Amino acid sequence: MNENMNAKEAFSNALASLRKGDKSNAAYWCRLALELDPNNIEAWLVLGGLSN
After folding, report:
1. CA atoms within 13 A on the CB side of 25
2. How far is residue 29's CA from residue 27's CA, in Å, rounded to a whole number?
3. Is residue 13 in a domain?
4. pLDDT, tens only, 8-35
5. Which domain range does residue 19 map to?
6. How many angstroms separate the Cα of 32 from the Cα of each of 2, 4, 14, 24, 38?
7. Residue 1 lies inside a defined structural domain of this protein
8. What pLDDT score was predicted for residue 5?
9. Fewest beta carbons less than 10 Å away: which of 15, 20, 48, 52?
């Protein structure tokens, strides 16, 4: 993990992965965003949607 990565950047990577159809990578980035900021509601919502 990049030490300078922040939750916003991680979530942005999640959305980019999602746009490419890469759900596995999107889930990875969402989990990283949540590790950096457990209160990131958007990351929780996207991760929840990916679990279906």
Report:
1. 11
2. 5
3. yes
4. 999 999 999 999 999 999 999 999 999 9
5. 7-50
6. 11, 13, 9, 13, 9
7. no
8. 79
9. 52
